[in-house]
Design brief:
Elements lengths: L1 H17 L23 E3 L4 H13 L4 E6 L10 E5 L3 E6 L2 H16 L8 E4 L5 E5 L30 H11 L4 E3 L12 H14 L5 E5 L4 H4 L11 H17 L5 E4 L16 H12 L5 E5 L13 H6 L10 E6 L23 E6 L15 H8 L12 H5 L10 E5 L15 H12 L5 H12 L4 H22 L31 H5 L5 E2 L18 H6 L9 H4 L2 E2 L10 H25 L6 H33 L14 H5 L10
Parallel strand pairs: 1-2, 2-4, 6-7, 6-13, 7-8, 8-9, 9-10, 10-11, 11-12, 12-13
Antiparallel strand pairs: 3-4, 3-5, 14-15
Helix pairs in contact: 2-3, 7-8, 12-13, 13-14, 14-18, 18-19
Length: about 675
Amino acid sequence: MQNFRIYIIAFLLFPLSFFAEDGSQLWLRFPNVKNGISSDKIISKGKNPTLEIAKKELRTYWQGQAVELRTEKSLKHLKDGYTIKSNSDKIIISAAKETGLLYAVYHILRLQQTKSDVNYLNITEKPSYDVRILNHWDNLDGSVERGYAGKSLWKWEDLPNKISPRYEEYARANASIGINSVVLNNVNASPNMLRTDYLQKVKVLADIFRPYGIKVYLSVNFSSPKVLGGLENSDPLNKNVQNWWKDKASEIYTLIPDFGGFLVKANSEGQPGPQDYGRTHADGANMMADILKPFGGIVMWRAFVYSPSKEDRAKQAYLEFLPLDGKFRDNVIVQIKNGPIDFQPREPFNPLFGALKKTSEMAEFQITQEYLGFSNHLVFLAPLFKETLESDTYADGKGSTVAKITDGSVRNNKITAIAGVANIGEDANWTGNIFAQANWYAFGRLAWNHELTSEQIADEWIKMTFTNDQKFVNPVKEMMLTSRETAVDYMMPLGLHHIFAFDHHYGPEPWGDIPGGRPDWMPVYYHKADENGVGFDRTNTGSNAVSQYFSPLNNTFGNIEACPENLLLWFHHVPWNYKMKDGKTLWEELCFKYDSGVKNVREYQKIWDKMEPYVDAERFKQIQSKLKIQSKDAVWWKDACLLYFQTFSKMRIPYDIERPIHELDDLKKIKLDLKHHN
């Protein structure tokens, strides 16, 4: 009898544990309608795997009026876009392609989920970019470079025979926000990715992704002909090398007819490339482009290049690529990181944007938080993405923003694209932190429509992921919208940059200066603190990096009085007693910024604790726990940076700022056993 009672209790508890909230549903929390829209209320012609998915989504989740799905070739100008027109009885969705119909179905489901009015709609959507792509830095051994959400989602050892259900869930999540492309593997690519056995595994993923409108791309190692093919070298002008790539491309397209193309990191951070043979980036990119062109493939060639030289690292990509402008094939697009250093919490936009007037350019953002507290810190990245996209390059006159340069509206680009380095892993919640899901969502939404505001995106995501209750939505939205600036304040305010712990980049190490190490990998290279002041002089009396920007920006950035204060120490070496616009000295301003960052994170903790009645216990506790870590880390950052910089400024920390709780010598002893691969 006792055993029977235990069995009954276990049986009753099982559903609760089985359905425990783990965050795996992401923002796709459409109510499952038991008696949803009937099939006869979904009007469509033809049969197509993508169309069938759209109809299934409607049957399962749509609660409104009848829906008609039309493919109309006259809407070709909308590319992947669509129109939605409705009255109280019917919604008519039209698109040139079935993929557009699927995107539109997710659009009306989003409207339903956020409790928006779906009567009398008159919507026309056209994506800002043709290629909206996630770059996965996943390795074949299951590790993820700069990954903070567990091991890789791709189980290469199981493929092609064993297929995880998460592959289709991943494709569905991407389609719901308009992402249509994915690079499966790390830019620091293994040549083995191009082995036949791995290509057969890639084919399985491509087949799963295709009905959701997603094309597969691969990062390739430039030395693959030599390493895999046994050739003497991988010189792009060597006929044998060219033939090897031709054969490999034919093999790929036989398996995957809609394969997108290659992403290449070459002659950067030890990766092989055409310069190994005295050739240029254009020589290497064009060789691959010529081979892919008959198949409709493209080459995304990364401009993240720098070498241990006397030249300012912030200038090197510009110096290396500007002479090559106009020398790339029309199916090559140069992929440029949003800033000139490396995904810092705040950077000015990369001066290459707009400078390459005869070459297609695309922005590369980092969704994974390599420099923003990994998956421990709440940092909503839409404001960072928007800051770059809305920056005016002045390349073609006023209004030549990074967005307009890259989306083809200012220039007639044959290819338009935007990339985000993914923050996705095998963790149940996909991203290691519930709030990090918002950054995946934000990238997708901005890739589809870069005119959306950060506030609109946050509002959507909160309502889709949690609740429509304004008592929850408003405070959490405010927390998200201020979180990026908060992180900048407690890490690197006023234009400070790259003062992280060596290699893994978690936590502060402004004193970092490894004997014999590369100077441009050391924090002291970037902050240049001394008894006179702090900051990197990039004016015409320093490295003259300001000269790479178009007028009037070169003058604005180069003038200490005109330079935006949030970039001041990026462009100027500033005296400690320099008077800021609010009347404080630079030292005082620095102190108050760090203190403000700490206070804001503590405020986030208070806000989140008040949200407990509106959210499930599991996600509430997960986020509460992460905020505790973030709060401790913020104090760590504040104390480390202020105590270290105080050794140069010799000035007191203002008394109305929270006092340090650490000793500098103790902070210098912290050495975390972290790797840059998960």
